Amino acid sequence: MFRLTNVLHAGAGALELQNLTANAKGSTQRRISAADLVDFGLCPHRWVTAPDPEDPLVAFGPPLPEWLAWAPTIGQNFFAARPATYEARVLKCPNCGSKGPAASCTKCGLRRQNTLVVRNWSTGANYCQQWEEQKQALGLRVLSARTWESARLGADKLNGDPHVHALMAAGSPSQMLLGTYTDPINGLVVPLWAWASFLPEAEGPKGQLVGRVLETANADPAQWERSVLGRGLHLEAALTMSLLNSEPSNNRSKYVWAVLEKAEPRLLARRLLSNEGLTEGHTRLQELLATYAQACAAGTWPNFERVGADFQDAWRTADIADWLTGGAGDHGGYLAPDLVEQGV
Ligand SMILES: [Zn+2]
Q1: Which domains does the chain have, with CATH numbers?
Q2: Is-contact 219 257, C-beta < 8 A?
């Protein structure tokens, strides 16, 4: 049984994200996400023993373009862009322009004057080092000017898309959902969280929708389908909906992604999870939660390597994935030959 316990706005959500690793994995107090369940499902031993990220906000939170697009003050409270240049004061001769630490130019015999020059940012320069230390002391993550510009471009793509913008504006964007799952067998209460980039007002015309902004290397439709299965994003959709729909006022039935490519030009794609995908997500989510509750209660976190003594058991065969050979389309799942032939 699912229960929604709290919906945090972007700022409170950002703080809560940083607290996620306060309880160790494997503890019944640890608040987990669908991504945790997927990783647990792949190998419980790896999930429970893998170190937590140094920065949970960056590792678990929404991508920077989402902050910059819809919660710019949060973005500025947690991130700072390193400038491309800085101004340095130097002593410069008014006649020949020579610069140096000495107060006078020996060639011209004139006093050098205090002048401002623009220099490229340098981690070796005192001014730049002090700037970074000040930002870090304020708890800011310092990013390169280029990374920031790329995130800015991503934010512009999100805000510039009429469909994405309409969905964002239909409610409060960037909300963190907190809730629980109570296992019907052993009664264990598992604390859960999910992120909703889009959470339109439940009573409004878009009230059946919920979704997320995610970054990916390749947003092409076939690649995205594989990402959904590989990353278990349909489980995340199912978890988000299960938490929301535990409230009688909610009746969410459609899950969408605004998919932003990581590399420039930062292509933006819109994807809707099929009903079959959602049903499958609910089935896998239930299975994994039940297994997780069992593992948590027993403190048992098995590894995927079998302990068998003979060769077949000890060395498992690695095969070529079906989609590479007989996948959808005439070219084994590769889209380009079809598209070129059709002249798209
Ligand atoms: Zn001079």
Answers
A1: 2-80+144-298 (3.90.320.10), 81-137 (no CATH)
A2: no
